[in-house]
Design goal:
Elements: H1 2-23, E1 28-34, E2 41-46, E3 51-55, E4 64-66, E5 69-76, E6 79-90, E7 96-109, E8 112-123, E9 128-140
Antiparallel strand pairs: 1-2, 1-9, 2-3, 3-5, 4-6, 5-6, 6-7, 7-8, 8-9
């Protein structure tokens, strides 16, 4: 009797997790290619709690250095909308030079994603410096 109750409890818990993963297909780790970025290859990680991280090699830009991006995302209809922010520094002076804010929309199809967004760059005083629209695609990292 106790074994049957345990089996039912485990089945209920795992079915709930499976359904949650289906609703939030973005959750996981992705290798993303953005041809407009100074270094085109990025790693994106989307967490279940609506946070995300972006990373690419710091040495990908010979003139400036930027942090990993940290951000948030929400599911909106059939797509994901989000934004991540990075801070930037000059490689020679080591001074803060500004920040980048990347707003994006993504569609997920199984283990593939496609999307687009706009990188808004701000100078060290917080004034808008430029905007760069981009398109990207990616593949889910799998075992």
């Amino acid at each position: 009797m106790r074994g049957a109750a345990l089996l039912i409890a485990v089945a209920a818990l795992t079915s709930g997790c499976h359904k949650a993963a289906g609703r939030n297909a973005i959750v996981g780790t992705w290798l993303v290619h953005d041809s407009q970025a100074p270094f085109p290859m990025h790693m994106y990680v989307f967490n279940r709690d609506g946070t995300m991280q972006q990373a690419n090699p710091d040495a990908g830009d010979a003139h400036g250095s930027d942090s990993d991006g940290k951000g948030v995302w929400i599911r909106q209809g059939g797509q994901v909308r989000g934004k991540w922010v990075e801070v930037m520094a000059d490689r020679t002076t080591h001074r803060f030079t500004g920040r980048g804010e990347y707003s994006f929309e993504i569609r997920v199809d199984g283990n593939h994603l496609t999307g687009g967004g706009t990188m808004r760059l701000y100078d060290a005083d917080g004034r808008p410096a430029s905007e760069v629209p981009t398109k990207f695609d990616g593949e889910r990292v799998q075992l």
